[in-house]
Amino acid sequence: MADAEADVRPKSDPLKWYCLIFVVMIVALTALYFKRNGDRKDLEAANAQGKLWFSETLARNTVDDRPNDIPGLAFEVEQLVEAYVEAGGEEASTISGSKMKIFATKAGMTEFQLGPELTDPQKSRGYTTVTRNYDYMPATLENLLALAFNVDNSRRYRVMELRWQLLSKAEGNAAAPFHKIARPSLKVALRKAIPKN
Question: What is the pLDDT of residue 79?
Answer without folding.
Answer: 75
